[in-house]
Amino acid sequence: MTNTIADIEEADVILITGSNTSENHPVISAFVKRAVTRRGAKLIVVDPRRIKMTEFAEHWIRPNLGTDVAWINGMMHVIIKEDLHDKTFVEDRTEKFDEMKAVVEKYTPEHVESITGIPAEKLIEAARLYAQAPAGSIVYCMGITQHTTGTDNVKSLANLAMLCGNLGIRGGGVNPLRGQNNVQGACDLGGLPNVLTGYQAVDNLDAIKKMERAWNVTGLPTKPGLTVTKMVPKAHSGEIKALYIIGENPLVSDPDLNHAKKCLSNLDFLVVQDIFLTETARMADVVLPSKCFAEKDGTFSNTERRVQRVRKAVDSPGLAKDDWKITCEIATRMGYSMSYKDSETIFNELASVTPSYAGISYPRIDHEGLHWPCPTPEHPGTPILHGAQFTRGKGMFHAIEWIAPAEVADDDYPMYLTTGRVLYHYHTGTMTMKTEGLNERVPESFVEITRGDAQGMGIEDGERVTIASRRGEIQARVRISRKAVDGTVFIPFHFAQAAANKLTNAALDPISGIPELKVCAVKLSKGA
Questions:
Q1: Which of 165, 304, 448, 522 could form a disulfide with 417 if both were Cys (CB 3.0 to 4.6 A apart)?
Q2: Is 393 left (phi over 0), alpha (psi -120 to 50) or beta?
Q3: Can you list the domains of the chain with their CATH numbers?
Q4: C-alpha pair distances (Å), 10 with each of 21, 160, 171, 305, 324
């Protein structure tokens, strides 16, 4: 997030897109609701489903799946045409405005309506509201990123924020909500194939030399590795023989699960490190039991870039160990002696090689966390990014054309599927489905559909149906819902017994490598 969670309450207008905030980020949704109900902030929700947040919205805009670039370009078209953009910000702090302007010129409200299904007048009203706000906050999640055009979607939102001068100010920003706890921290500390800690590129020779000195090694690789969406297919082809999976359950969460299972089955050796025996762990040759968050000391870096202490609350069961201790033992047995006194020693090392964390230490975050970048021990942290300038100097507009989803509905598969989460379960259910009360609330998978679509197919509420795509099929119970939109069904992806990801498309964003989990073509039929 460019701004803090609390800062959302300072916004005059909040635009939420690709985020079922009240179910997936209920704490953050409370900040949005307070901003609306107590401060009079105006809320724009862009979502194909009638999610709970629409009840608080001044404008609810309902686009067709996979049309985000089109409606964002359409809003920018209106803002520029009506001279509502922040000309001072654009002139002083950005570049390539004219190239972007030339592309959005053809995205008239009427043209956008033909692509997205959004009524032209509703698009115009929302564009005016966002553009005229003294401070506008954009909040998004995986409904924006999990597309073959996910990178384009994010860049388009950045375009919109820059166009209206909504970066580097209180109540503004472009604020992605992370999908899992400490995803931000994992990325910060090098859990990506193309960077070292603090997003230092692996081909940055100065950064490589710094790491080599810290670790007393030579010859660190300078070429990017593979994303997980590229690793798994290489297991199928035999290019990857062994895989070590830590804290993930790809046999429920990966797209095109039938293919993913074949890929993992083709490995010579599979290691899984986790706190429970997940569907993936059951396939493993070796399972390494690790501690959960409440059983260890360390830090988490949350969605607002705040680095916070995590302290052991209870003892761990059985043979479970700290993840870092498992890593150290494996490294030592493989010939590199790796030993640390405790988690604080590890943090001190990473701070010494990571410019954005250099000023953070355990004593400084003993009571309250700090936002990176925090480059020196005296630095107060940076709650709001891009205050004076962008990291690259001037912010760059991107001229982006809308591209259709990788798979569209046709006569064989006439409906669209989108997937997501429900309030009572988390990710692949590894933890939440061990809780009786949560299982009572949502005991099994379901397919959410409109009453009109259900009646057209002769399907009753609560009836079991078969949902099929070009990749597989599952059975689930029908839930007729006001949230649904005609022509589109929604299935939560938590349930291994009726895994929505057996249906989803593994087509990837060519830049980020993220699969298109949010849109694919399906057909429904009465269950056997």
A1: 522
A2: left
A3: 6-177 (3.40.228.10), 179-221+291-310+336-376 (3.40.50.740), 415-526 (2.40.40.20)
A4: 18, 19, 4, 18, 39
